[in-house]
Write a structure and sequence with these properties.
alpha/beta, Pantoate--beta-alanine Ligase, Chain: A,domain 2, 6-stranded parallel beta sheet
């Protein structure tokens, strides 16, 4: 049975004493979130899903007010996946007394890629993640790899602050045609959705190559051929978002606007520089 709660007091009374997993979301749940819930269910006897549209991680020109809020459907999805508790707090429960005067500093890793395009985003994200880790007292937390920079920063925060929580990354879930699942996909018109497929095509094509220059050239070619896509960045990095290694695991990341909607995606790949 899934219990819906809204307050810190309720959470303190109901959370498990040990073996607690948390999946943090902003709602508008889709199959990608369900995958996280299933992974959590397999690993832990007690699963909490949080649903909170965090105002701190939205910029002044971003979509906080129109971000989809579908609590009833979200709770039903959690119920179907065997979640024990859905914690859906209001803003005053998460930030009593108003916006916090002290927030997390994302450091240099938070200033590149998404951080360069969305100043302050990662400080707001890390602040709420740290709060929710402490409020839920989770032993393990599950995050999707689609938001790869977010995942990398959460891992760094947990390690640097010694929070004692295991962070598990779960591979991106995609539509049959390759589009990465996102709550923002619902903003796309039919024509925009067709154009958005260029992101996953570019990443897949780039990942068929092993030389860094060839990876970027192949991906850029596909993106340039789609007029409906306005690229923010295409980046090849190491698995920790540092410089790509001469050989070994790497990550190819893209962000672009399709119509008024900003989308991100990434894939893992392996590099082998020619001798």
């Amino acid at each position: 049975m899934t219990t819906l709660i809204h307050t810190r007091r309720e959470l303190a009374a109901i959370r498990g004493t040990a073996g607690t997993a948390v999946v943090m979301t902003m709602g508008a749940l889709h199959e990608g979130h369900r995958r996280l819930m299933r992974e959590a269910r397999e690993r832990a006897p007690f699963v909490i899903v949080t649903i909170f549209v965090n105002p701190l991680q939205f910029g002044p020109n971003e979509d906080f007010d129109k971000y989809p809020r579908t609590l009833e459907a979200d709770v039903e999805a959690c119920r179907e996946e065997g979640v024990d508790v859905v914690f859906a707090p209001g803003r005053d429960e998460v930030y009593p007394g108003g916006p916090p005067s002290i927030t997390m500093n994302a450091g240099p890793l938070g200033e590149i890629l998404e951080g360069a395009s969305r100043p302050g985003h990662f400080a707001g994200m890390l602040t709420v993640v740290e709060k929710l880790l402490l409020l839920t007292r989770a032993d393990v937390a599950f995050f999707g790899e689609k938001d790869f920079q977010q995942l990398a920063l959460i891992r760094r925060m947990v390690r640097d602050l010694e929070l004692g929580v295991e962070i598990v990354g779960v591979p991106t879930v995609r539509e049959p045609d390759g589009l990465a699942l996102s709550s923002r996909n619902r903003y796309l018109s039919a024509e925009e959705r067709r154009a958005a497929l260029a992101l996953s095509r570019a990443l897949r094509e780039g990942a068929t190559h092993t030389d860094p220059d060839a990876v970027l050239a192949a991906a850029n070619k596909i993106l340039a051929e789609e007029p409906g896509v306005r690229v923010d960045y295409l980046a090849l990095t190491g698995p920790d978002l540092g410089d790509p290694p001469p050989t070994g695991p790497a990550r190819l990341l893209v962000a672009a606007r399709v119509g008024a909607t900003r989308l991100i995606d990434n894939v893992p790949l392996t590099l082998e520089r020619a001798a």
